[in-house]
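To illustrate the input format used throughout this study, we show a single complete record. The first block contains the structure-token representation of the backbone; no residue identities are included at this stage. The design step must infer an amino acid for every position from geometry alone.
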């Protein structure tokens, strides 16, 4: 008889389909297997243990009834209980289901094809017959077929896996494992595994069993036993670590490869337990988006760009689920993470913030280096290298009169004058400045915002105003504040209004009206001595060109104070002024006597006091040499009696007078309406209201008393007995 040769188990399971489809499992078993039984054939893909039900095995008629095949409910392995003969039956068609007590199928049916492999145990061809007498002593020390033990097998340990036997007596068995493993042999030659095996730690063991005498000497050569650990799905896929994020340029087309995920499964290569598929968890498509930003090939793990656009600077975390057993529901899984960064490209051309600059006026004599304008530009790219800009004057400067100045990493450029201007050659310049990206631009070219237009107007130089070299005035030391000393006038006509100011007025004695140029005393000339001179500087400048200015000296000669005089106001009828302002005023006159030219007297001059509020609210106009006209300067002045200070001056001296004027509201005829107090004997508003309320309360109380009386009388009539009513006499 030919010895049984190595048992080979070939497992071929198709990819797991939906629950109602199960690929047929195939397994080969050599006929006349001489090893131990039961022989574990293949692990069935049963549902999780928490699924309640009983395992039902069906198939070739008579096979199940004979108990030839069975399913171990603890490990889920299909096993055969005895040796098979191919000449008797070459294959067995089995079905395994998980059913409830009432026959409802929870799982399956799972088809299993058991193929009996042929052994050379039959004679064939032409035969010759001979008679030979042979005396045989049975040899039981024969080689063992390989033993297949499932990993993580849930059975009581130690668990028998093989049997050896020495046909002699007085034998001791000794077992050696290479590499060392959890195996043992007892005195009867039964080989045991003592604990669960792990295929990932060791897939095969080579055992040697020795038959020895009491002196530990081998009777014969040791028997070899190959133990193959069968795979179980006890390892989840493991994702390969990544040290740095994946960089993808923006505007990359759909289909661009991003990365490929490689998950490893420590279970048996090529088996369903190590068949990994991938599922994209996030990012999810944005609401309203036409497509996804990323696409995933579930078999290869390749990630490519989708149709949804991505923006530069985005940092995206891809989360992909790796599932073994081809993505089956009970497959083990893990999550892989990949960081993706969308890098910037130079796809934005720089643009000016303002493309049309308002005209800039430059005088003809402007010096080279003068700043004409500052232009600002922006670039929407994120990378600093892509934001570097280059500026140039594209048109309007054929003579090189202007130039540009900017820093390499700056976003603004200064337009400066390089040469002298000529009004006769060109009264205006229209410059076109262009901005470009230093780095090569990707995508569309520059837009209309890449140019800015600057118009430069050349102006003829305007000379500064001209004043006399010096101005002089003689003033008595007793001159009061607010007195007019002189008026500064330009020596030549001017094309623009002037503005005047005083410089180095150290004593603060003087003030000048900005528009008219009138110089007044700002305060009494205390400390001034007759014969002294006081010098200040008068500056005049154009109103619209403050830089064009000139100055002249003003010399004040102090004189001795003249004799005192007391001007009086001629009596005038009492007048009032209306507010809001009307066409009325108060006439102010000099002394009653006529001026005496022989006595040193001359015409009078009138001016308001130096108080800024008085000068704001009132206006004084000279009528002649002896009278002036006082009116309101504002449309509205507070209605009350006002004391207006008026400075009266003549050759003999200056005095300040207080003119009392009544300001009031007026009717349409211009008559003053004054506020009057309450007339005697007339009630006030409060007292009138009190009287009215008291009267109404008295009337109310009186009405209440009347209604109460009527109610009580009526009630009394209703309560009177009926028999008390007098009867009418019968006629």
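Output of the design step:
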């Amino acid at each position: 008889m030919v010895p049984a040769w190595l048992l080979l188990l070939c497992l071929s399971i198709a990819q797991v389909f939906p629950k109602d489809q199960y690929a047929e499992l195939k397994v080969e078993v050599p006929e006349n297997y001489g090893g131990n039984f039961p022989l574990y054939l293949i692990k069935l893909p049963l549902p999780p243990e928490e699924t309640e039900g009983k395992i039902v095995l069906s198939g070739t008629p008579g096979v199940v009834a004979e108990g030839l095949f069975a399913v171990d409910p603890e490990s889920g392995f299909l096993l055969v209980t005895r040796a098979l003969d191919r000449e008797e039956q070459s294959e067995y068609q089995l079905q395994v289901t998980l059913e409830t007590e009432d026959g409802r199928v929870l799982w399956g049916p799972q088809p299993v094809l058991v193929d009996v492999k042929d052994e050379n145990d039959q004679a064939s061809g032409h035969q010759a017959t001979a008679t030979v007498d042979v005396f045989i002593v049975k040899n039981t020390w024969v080689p063992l077929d390989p033993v297949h033990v499932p990993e993580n097998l849930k059975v009581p340990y130690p668990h028998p896996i093989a049997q050896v036997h020495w046909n002699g007596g007085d034998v001791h068995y000794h077992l050696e494992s290479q590499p060392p493993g959890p195996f043992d042999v007892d005195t009867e030659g039964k080989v045991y595994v003592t604990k669960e095996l792990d295929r990932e730690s060791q897939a095969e063991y080579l055992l040697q069993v020795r038959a020895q005498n009491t002196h530990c000497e081998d009777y014969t050569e040791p028997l070899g036993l190959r133990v193959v650990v069968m795979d179980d799905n006890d390892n989840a896929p493991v994702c390969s670590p990544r040290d740095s994020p994946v960089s993808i340029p923006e505007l990359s087309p759909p289909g661009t490869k991003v990365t490929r995920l490689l998950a490893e499964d420590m279970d048996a290569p090529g088996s369903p337990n190590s068949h990994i598929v991938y599922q994209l968890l996030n990012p999810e498509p944005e609401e309203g988006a036409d497509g996804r930003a990323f696409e995933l090939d579930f078999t290869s793990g390749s990630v490519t760009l989708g149709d949804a656009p991505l923006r530069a600077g985005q940092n995206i975390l891809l989360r992909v689920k790796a599932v073994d057993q081809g993505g089956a529901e009970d497959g083990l899984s893990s999550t892989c993470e990949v960081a993706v960064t969308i890098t910037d490209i130079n796809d934005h051309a720089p643009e000016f913030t303002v493309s049309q600059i308002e005209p800039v006026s430059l005088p003809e004599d402007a010096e080279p280096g003068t700043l004409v304008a500052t232009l600002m530009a922006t670039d929407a790219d994120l990378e600093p290298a892509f934001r570097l800009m280059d500026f140039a004057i594209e048109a309007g400067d054929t003579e090189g009169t202007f130039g540009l100045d900017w820093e390499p990493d700056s976003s603004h450029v200064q337009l400066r004058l390089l040469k002298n201007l000529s009004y006769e050659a060109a009264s205006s310049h229209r410059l076109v400045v262009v901005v470009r990206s230093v780095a090569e631009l990707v995508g569309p070219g520059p837009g209309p915002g890449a140019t800015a237009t600057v118009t430069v107007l050349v102006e003829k130089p305007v000379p500064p105003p001209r004043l006399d070299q010096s101005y002089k005035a003689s003033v008595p030391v007793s001159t009061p504040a607010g007195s007019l000393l002189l008026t500064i006038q330009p020596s030549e006509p001017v094309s623009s209004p002037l503005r005047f100011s005083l410089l180095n007025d150290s004593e603060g004695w003087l003030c000048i009206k900005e528009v008219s140029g009138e110089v007044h005393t700002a305060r009494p000339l205390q400390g001034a001595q007759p014969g002294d001179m006081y010098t200040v500087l008068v500056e005049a400048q154009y109103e619209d060109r403050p830089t064009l200015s000139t100055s002249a000296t003003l010399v004040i000669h102090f004189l001795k104070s003249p004799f005192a005089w007391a001007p009086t106001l001629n009596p005038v009828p009492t007048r009032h002024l209306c507010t809001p302002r009307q066409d009325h005023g108060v006439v102010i006159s000099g002394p009653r006597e006529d001026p005496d030219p022989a006595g040193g007297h001359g015409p009078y001059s009138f001016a308001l006091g130096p108080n800024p509020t008085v000068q704001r609210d009132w206006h004084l106009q000279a009528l002649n040499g002896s009278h002036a006209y006082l009116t309101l300067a504002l449309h509205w002045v507070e209605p009350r009696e006002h004391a207006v200070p008026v400075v009266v001056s003549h050759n003999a001296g200056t005095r300040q007078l207080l003119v009392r004027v009544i300001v009031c509201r007026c009717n349409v005829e211009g008559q003053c309406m004054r506020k009057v107090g309450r007339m005697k004997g007339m009630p006030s508003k409060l007292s009138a209201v009190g009287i009215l309320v008291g009267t109404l309360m008295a009337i109310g109380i009186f009405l209440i008393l009347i209604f109460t009386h009527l109610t009580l009388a009526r009630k009394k009539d209703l309560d009177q007995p009926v028999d008390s009513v007098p009867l009418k006499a019968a006629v």
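Structural context for interpreting the output: The first strand starts at residue 25 and ends at 30. Residues 1-20, 592-601, 722-731 have pLDDT under 50 and may be disordered.
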